[in-house]
Amino acid sequence: MAGMSAAQSRQPADAVHFSPRFVAPPNARGYFTRGAKAYPSDRAAKIKRWFEFDELSVHTRYRFVENARGDTVSNQQQYRFAGRGRFKFDSKGRYSVVAGLFTGNSITGGWNNTGVGTGDVQTNLYLKQLYFDANPVKGLEIQVGGIAINNGENTEATGYDNDVYLTGERVVFRLPKKVYFDEISLASAHIGEFNHPSVFRRFDNFAKSNYHQFLVRKQVNKRVGFSADYTFESGSDTFRQAVKIKTSETHFVDHVVFENYQRFDGPGKYGFNVFGERKVGKKLTLDAGFARIDGRLLNGDRFPQGNLFHATATYKFSPEFSLSTFIIHGAGPMAPTLPRTRFELIFSYNLLETLRRHKLQ
Predict the structure, then answer these.
(1) What is the residue-averaged pLDDT of the chain?
(2) Residue 240: how many other CB atoms lie within 10 Å
(3) pLDDT tens profile 196-211
(4) Residue 331 CB partners (closer than 8 Å, separation 6+)
(5) Cα–Cα dist 242/38, whole Å
(6) Rg, Å, the chain Cα set
(7) I need a surface site. Which of 74, 277, 289, 347 has the fewest CB within 10 A?
(8) CA distances from 308 to 94, 230, 267 (A)
């Protein structure tokens, strides 16, 4: 979710510039009342038979970034929209077409500038994901088209930015009773067009594979889960691993995550991130950690090259609304142009939870 440069703030021609109606609110069981009687929401059921949202949210954030030289790089208000849904060919949803519409002008960019503060206003949306999803038998999923990244247990600190897009195919096996791993994922795709997020601009490179990934994931027991993957990207080989350990009995953190990567395109290409998370009460979640990133990656732009202390706090007012703050600070020597201090304040609205509350999803 990178900050936008002047070049990225231009609005290409392929950008898209752009309620359900019901008589009365449903009761707790999803029924509309008519006098003393209740009847099912047939309209919602009919809609869900054919179409279903996987994600629907809007966010706004204040972002401040200062580089190692002490210059203010970003001091701005931004917004983000994320909408992903599927059209189902059959009633069980085994075969569907998934489409994802998002803000952001680059492969690591998911935010648009409002024009308040640094950066020009941006009003575009892109169809970044569009793929055919098939589950012909239990435990097998096939995705073909413009697909999202699969980081396993790695976060976007050491994995890929969550906004990264691929064009190709992925096969996922979920047969924990027959094989040791809960998930085995194999992908062959093209990664590129860094500043052309529209999936229609990328379909031309569908057959030009420069990205291959083999990933496994396992929940060992109630406390420990891990993933590991080997990724080939444009001549560079990377091996990633991550382990998540629940530690609630310590009463200090609920779980700890350690993730790392090794790149084989040169000596000493190694990075890691370790952090702990704690839920305070029912609404507040805190986490803090330390990351070391050895060089430039397609990871989250929050985690540039360097030794980084980071912390996040999220307060969930309701299933729909939340407020979070994020701060990261680079320690030790850094290149003058690299971000040393970054602060974000984000307000989020999960519209999908509203639809679920009204039994429309």
Answers:
(1) 89
(2) 24
(3) 999 999 999 998 999 9
(4) 306, 307, 308, 309
(5) 50
(6) 22
(7) 347
(8) 43, 25, 22
Residues 292 and 274: beta-carbon distance below 8 Å: no
Looking at this protein, which amino acid is placed at residue 218? K
Q: Give how far Cα 100 sits from Cα of 48, 87, 111, 122, Å.
A: 17, 12, 15, 19
Evaluate whether 216 touches 231 at the Cβ level (below 8 Å): no
Exposure string (b/e) for 283-293, b if CB count within 10 Å is 16 or more? eebbbebebbb
Partner residues linked to 345 by β-bridges: 62, 325
Q: C-alpha distances in angstroms, 186 versus 173, 204, 227?
A: 9, 22, 13
Neighbours of 342 (CB within 10 A): 24
What lies within 8 Å, CB to CB, of 29 at 6+ separation is 38
Going through the chain in order, the beta strands assigned E by DSSP cover 31-34, 37-40, 51-67, 72-88, 95-102, 112-117, 126-134, 140-148, 165-173, 183-190, 211-219, 224-233, 236-246, 255-263, 270-280, 284-293, 306-316, 321-331, 339-350
Cβ-contact 351, 56 below 8 angstroms? yes
Provide the β-strand partners of residue 57. 82, 350
CB atoms within 10 A of CB 41: 18
Token pair, residue 165, equals 């897009």
Judge contact between 150 and 185, C-beta under 8 A: yes
pTM, entire model: 0.86
Contact yes or no for 1/164 (Cβ under 8 A): no
For residue 227, name the pLDDT band (cuts at 50, 70, 90). very high
Confidence of residue 40 (pLDDT cuts 50, 70, 90): very low
| Residue position matching structure tokens 């350690």 | 258
CA distance 134 to 130: 13
Q: How confident is the model at residue 29 (pLDDT cuts 50, 70, 90)?
A: very low
Q: What is the Cα–Cα distance from 219 to 176, expressed in whole angstroms?
A: 10
Contacts of 95 (CB under 8 A, 6+ apart): 88, 89, 132, 133, 134, 135
